[in-house]
Amino acid sequence: MARIKPFKGVRPPKTLVEEVVSRPYDVLNSEEARAEAAGNEKSLYHIIKPEIDFEPGTDEHDPKVYDKAVENFKKFQEKGWLVQDDKDIYYIYAQTMDGRTQYGFVVGAWVNDYTEGRIKKHELTRRDKEEDRMKHVRVNNANIEPVFFAFPDNEALEVIIKTVTAGEPEYDFVAPDGFGHTLWTIDDDATIAKITEEFEKIPNLYIADGHHRSAAAALVGAEKAKQNPDHKGDEEYNYFMAVAFPASHLRIIDYNRVVKDLNGLTTEEFLDKIRENFEVEEKGTEIYTPNALHNFALYLDRKWYSLTANPGTYDDNDPIGVLDVTVSSNLILRDILGITDLRSDKRIDFVGGIRGLGELQKRVDSGEMKMALALYPVTMNQLIDIADSGNIMPPKTTWFEPKLRSGLVIHKLD
User: Nearest 5°: phi and psi at 118?
Assistant: First the structure.
């Protein structure tokens, strides 16, 4: 059962929230963060991307960069740009994109639920990225940024969402990217107890986004437990910050591929090989969007094609074999184009669906890439099935939007 707790969040005053909050650390590079934070000493980038306070080109993993994060976190609190709530509470965080709103609970998630597999993952993590986030959590003694969870729908929690969000929000603003962000505080003891009780009925939580942050936060919590001779199990470091959304609220966006060459094949040779496993239909110059599972869009030589996988090329009874990313990775990228390692091969790049299929066309028409492949998006049910089966999704399978805004709430580990 999922064990969560409320906590004393550290967050900006209402009047400063839009100056403080930022995009997550891992969706932009150092120079982009430097540009976004220009002229704004209150930007959270000074804590989550502190290399921006040094000369361009400074290694973001330099010890002095981590030290700067600590210095800036302390400064933000001393100046009143971040203030800690005076009691343990929950929060509801709403995100609005394209007229659609999803509501999540900001909670302290139990480290043991991660280490014992009740917080389920669907992606592999890289040790170097884990270590970077572990250092950031260690030196700041805080989870500066949340992880993104999903959980099976729960009627009682939906009622709480509707009740709380009918009231006045603490924050309500539209970020520069056009997405809306709204936060409510829940300090009523009875409601807090009910939320904790309802989560205890939920067998598993699922990491939607933030696998490295989840791993790092859990590992630091476990470290602190080992280092404390008086460890009891109820210390704050036994929990890390997450925003947990009902699964039905979430939508996974397509995650598409662009490839630099056809592995020595001509266009006709490539299409002939595609026809061995797919029904191919030329669609012309207008953008074609995949319309169902096992249907793909190919863009090549300024033309769009519909590719429909033939029966027998996929396994709808296998949580991995049913995925279109598996079908395309095996039958097109590996067997035809010779791309076997999606994580390291320099011939392939990945484009989040938030950028639209026009971005694929642009990158091919420019000559940077030879062809593009658009996939029908994975569903939340597929993600949950894979996590429940103990399997791992292929790389670059899921893309969630909108991203969680960082700095709305911070969780201290003491």
Answer: -85, -20
Residue 1: which of 149, 117, 156 has the closest Cα?
A: 117
Question: Rg of the chain's alpha carbons, rounded to an integer?
Answer: 23
Mean pLDDT, rounded, of the chain? 95
Query: b or e along 336-374 (b: 16 or more beta carbons within 10 Å of the residue's beta carbon)?
Result: bbebeebeeeeebbebbbbeebebbbbbbeeeebbbbbb
Contacting residues for 91 by C-beta, under 8 A, at least 6 apart: 9, 105, 106, 170, 183, 184, 185, 186, 408, 409
Cβ atoms of residues 357 and 347 within 8 Å: no
Q: Tell me, rounded to whole angstroms, the distance of Cα 315 from its chain centroid.
A: 27
Long-range Cβ contact pairs of 12-16 (< 8 A, separation 24 or more): 12/81, 12/82, 12/83, 12/407, 12/408, 13/80, 13/81, 13/83, 14/170, 14/171, 16/42, 16/81
Dihedral, CA of residue 32, residue 33, residue 35 and residue 41, to nearest 10:
180
Amino acid, single-letter form, for residue 190: A
The tens digit of pLDDT for each residue in 218-265 reads 999 999 999 999 999 999 999 999 999 999 999 999 999 999 999 999
In whole angstroms, how far apart are CA 103 and each of 95, 125, 249, 255, 314? 7, 27, 7, 23, 34
Phi/psi of residue 247, nearest 5 degrees: -60, -35
Residue 253 contacts residue 379 (beta carbons within 8 Å): no
Residue 1 has pLDDT above 90, yes or no: no
Task: Examine residue 402 and say whether the peptide bond preceding it is cis (omega within 30 degrees of 0).
Answer: yes
At 396 the pLDDT is 83
Contact status, residue 297 vs residue 307, Cβ threshold 8 Å: yes
At 134 the three-state DSSP class reads helix
Quick one: average pLDDT of 160-184? 97
Q: pTM to 2 decimals?
A: 0.90
Q: Is the pLDDT of residue 126 over 80?
A: no
Strand order in the sheet with 295-300: 278-284, 303-309, 295-300, 371-374, 255-259, 348-352
**Separation CA 312–CA 134 (nearest Å):** 44
Residue with tokens 């091969």: 345
Three-class SS state of 317: coil
Residues 109, 206 contacting (CB under 8 angstroms): no
User: Strand pairing of 119-120 and 205-209?
Assistant: parallel
d(CA 399, CA 380): 11
